Amino acid sequence: MTFQDVLSGAEVVSLSGDAEVAGVEYDSRRVRPGSLFVAIRGETSDGNRFIEAAAAAGAVAVVSDAENFSPPPGVAWARVGEGRRALARISANFYQRPAEKLAVSGVTGTNGKSTTTFLIESIFGAAGRRSMLVGTIEYHVAGKILPAPHTTPESLELNRLFSEALQAGASDAVRVTEVAGQV
Question: Any residues with CB less than 8 A from the CB of 54 and at least 6 apart, and which?
Fold first, then answer.
C-alpha cells in the first residue's frame, strides 16, 4: 500500500513524496525497513524526537503533527493536524478498515466491565460464533490469550488485533471502552 493511500481521509496539512508502506509504527524501536512512522506527542515523550532514529531503522515515510519538523532526506512525509487522530485513520486504512467488518460490542461503566466482556465472549462461543476480546486483563485473538499492556490500546494495536481476528474467521469483537460510545 502506498503512503498516499494510507493517508486517505487523514487531516493532512502538507505532504511530500510517496513510498510503498510495509508497516505502521508509532514507536521508533519497532520500525523496520519499509515502515511508516507516526510521530505522536504524548504526555511524557514527543515522538518527533525519534524521527531520525525511525529513518535510520528504515522508515520510508513520517507523519507528524509538529508545526516545524524536519523530515530526513529521501523520506516521504506528511504534516497532520492531530497525530493521534491521524494514527487512527492511517492504521485503519493500512489494515483495510477491520472494525467495519466486525460486529463490535463496547462495554463501559464503573464496575464489572471485564466480567461482562468475558460473558459476552462466552455467549458468542456458545452460539457458534468466532469472536475476539479486548479487555483490561487480557486480549483473546485467534485462539491466543495475550496480556493487556494498556487499559485502552492505541488505535494501531486495535486495528492490528481486529485484522488478526478477521483473518482467523472472527465475526464479532467485544471490548472494554473507557468512554461510552467509543469503539
Answer: 25, 28, 31, 35, 37, 39, 62
Q: Are strands 172-176 and 131-134 parallel, antiparallel or unpaired?
A: parallel
Cell representation of residue 72: 530526513
140 forms beta bridges with 133, 145
Residue 135, CA distances (Å) to 3, 57, 77 in order? 31, 32, 34
Burial class of residue 182 in the structure, from the number of CB atoms within 10 Å of its CB (0-12 exposed, 13-18 middle, 19+ buried): exposed
The reply to whether 66 and 104 lie within a common domain is no
Do 85 and 155 reside in the same domain of the chain?
no
Dist. CA 65–CA 80, nearest whole Å = 5
pTM over 0.85: yes
CA distance 131 to 92: 19
Q: Which of 79, 94, 109 is the last residue of a domain?
A: 94
Average confidence (pLDDT) per 10 residues, the chain, 183 residues = 97 96 97 97 90 97 92 95 96 98 93 93 95 93 90 91 96 83 50
